[in-house]
TrEMBL record:
Pfam families per the UniProt record, alphabetical: ThiF
Gene Ontology molecular function: nucleotidyltransferase activity; tRNA threonylcarbamoyladenosine dehydratase; ubiquitin-like modifier activating enzyme activity
Entry keyword set: Nucleotidyltransferase, Transferase
InterPro entries with a match to the protein in the record: ThiF/MoeB/HesA, ThiF_NAD_FAD-bd, Ubiquitin-activating_enz
Highest taxon of source: Bacteria
SUPFAM superfamilies listed in its UniProt record: Activating enzymes of the ubiquitin-like proteins (SSF69572)
Protein name as it appears in the record: ThiF family adenylyltransferase
Entry keyword annotation includes Transferase: yes
One of the GO BP terms on file: cyclic threonylcarbamoyladenosine biosynthetic process
Domain THIF-type NAD/FAD binding fold: 185-376
């Protein structure tokens, strides 16, 4: 198998594991990780969901054929749990050293003795083992089709960093030591090095919604040098989009036809107008001719469309429906993909027509409790979700819509305020320019007061997306269904 194998773990869970493995005594310690899995043509990702710490002298004891070993009781209990929860069983221990690590011959022999049986117990696993040094990790992964080595681990927090079995080119080389591979990105490399630029070229990023805010993110990511963008939107360009969507031309909205007083010509113009994702692809290709670009005309609430994003490295949500928030939040937590939701709001009083508190929102969402979960912050109201599932006639009958023909105010400069912070967050996270202790809180900017508010993180212990509840989707990957609408029967 030529597919790379990646192990993804969120920063709080990694810290818990790291503190257990390296308490400062220089000795060996053990644990087991229960993990979800996702497999796509891009590779296999194991997704850390829970860590079971082995107690020294009780669960992790002197071995008969090696230095230390997990007890049979501990292995049976945790592997049984993994089988019940349909999760992968990954044993963990540590060695000495710092930047390089590998399994000992005793380690590998123990895998050969035990893992065929564990594959049966966990109904095909995969099962496997990780061995850590302080700044390195190696893996031996067993599947029904063979045995494979781990390529790297990704740790997801305010820094998104990779850990390898042995030293690799750093994610951020010193700017003064940079050798710029592509002179077009010389000014970028002076900030985060040519290796940092290479990071962007290897990323796959999803953008949901290519309207005003999404179109800005699309162009900026393309100019930043991101190698692969998946853009999703079902809508077409119309006349009122021209001042707000980057790169649109009058002919994209077929203004000659849509402004005609003849109804059938207006209808023809709407039918011939450009898809927003196709405009976005044109803009991206102009900025970066070598970019791989998937322009998807579709709705994120459809499962086949949402599945296109399960192996992305980052997600941006720039659509304003509650259903898109629901699916985005699920993707972040179920597949351990960091993301950011953006938006802008210009409230207008229906009676006085006075403009209220204009604000923009930039909401990072990281896949763990207190990481910005949209459910926990009450940003996916059930009533609004129900409203969106109704037809226009049903909404009118239930009085959800009072003035359905009145569009919401929107200005490109407000979109800029929310989008620029989102893309800067993305850039700083991958180039390790944020300090590890930085908290990426939801940020609201109130334009009329020139005031910025950082929202305190929240978490619900029973949340079905971000919590450790046995019912939550967090880190379950392909073995849990996304909250998408069912396909229409043929």
């Amino acid at each position: 198998m030529n597919k790379p194998i990646e192990f993804r773990i969120d920063a709080p869970l990694f810290k818990k594991l790291d503190n257990h493995l390296f308490p400062g005594d220089g000795d060996e310690h053990g644990a087991v990780i229960a993990a979800g899995i996702v497999e796509t043509p891009r590779g296999i990702r194991l997704l850390a969901r829970e860590v079971f710490l082995a107690r020294d002298g009780i669960d992790y004891v002197p071995g008969t054929r090696g230095y230390r070993a997990l007890t049979a009781k501990f292995v049976a209990e945790v592997s049984g749990y993994c089988a019940e929860q349909n999760l992968c069983y990954i044993a963990v221990h540590c060695h000495g050293g710092r930047d390089e690590v590998c399994f000992s011959s005793d380690d590998l022999a123990s895998h050969e003795r035990g893992y065929p049986a564990l594959l049966d117990i966990t109904r095909g696993g995969p099962v496997g083992a990780l061995v850590f040094a302080k700044n390195a990790v190696a893996g031996d992964i067993w599947t029904p089709s063979g045995r494979f080595q781990l390529d790297y681990m990704t740790i997801i927090g305010s820094q998104i960093r990779r850990v390898y079995p042995s030293p690799q080119p750093r994610w951020r080389s010193p700017p003064q030591a940079s050798r710029v591979a592509n002179p077009m990105y010389d000014r970028h490399a002076r900030m985060f090095g040519d290796v940092g630029q290479e990071i962007f070229s290897n990323l796959k990023v999803g953008i949901i919604g290519l309207g005003g805010g999404g179109s800005l993110i699309n162009e900026w990511l393309s100019r930043l040098g991101v190698g692969h963008i998946v853009a999703i939107d079902f809508d077409r360009v119309e006349l009122t989009n021209l001042p707000r969507i980057v790169g649109t031309k009058p002919w994209d909205a077929m203004t000659t036809l849509t402004k005609s007083p003849i109804p059938w010509l207006q209808k023809l113009g709407k039918w011939l107008s450009a898809d927003k994702v196709h405009v976005a692809r044109r803009v991206a290709k102009q900025a970066n001719p070598s970019i791989r670009y998937d322009a998807v005309v579709g709705n994120i609430v459809d499962e086949a469309i949402a599945k296109l994003l399960v192996d992305t490295d980052f997600l941006f949500l720039a659509a304003d429906s509650m259903q898109s928030r629901l699916v985005f939040n699920a993707l972040v937590h179920q597949y351990l993909i960091p993301g950011i939701q953006i938006g802008a709001k210009v409230p207008v009083d229906k009676l006085s027509k006075q403009v209220g508190d204009i604000f923009t929102a930039t909401r990072p969402v990281l896949p763990y409790a207190y990481g910005g979960c949209l459910h926990c912050h009450e940003l996916i109201p059930p009533g609004r979700l129900q409203q969106e599932t109704l037809s226009e006639e049903e909404r009118r009958n239930q009085r959800y819509v009072e003035d359905e023909d009145i569009a919401q105010p929107s200005v490109i400069t407000l979109n800029v305020k929310s989008a620029e912070q989102a893309v800067n967050d993305f850039m700083m996270m991958f180039t390790l320019l944020y300090e590890p202790e930085v908290q990426l809180r939801h940020q609201l900017r109130f334009a009329r007061e020139r005031n910025v508010i950082n929202v305190e993180p929240r978490a619900n212990k029973d949340c079905l997306d971000c919590s450790d509840s046995s019912r939550s989707r967090r880190a379950r990957g392909d073995r849990y269904r996304l909250p998408c609408r069912l396909p229409k029967s043929l």
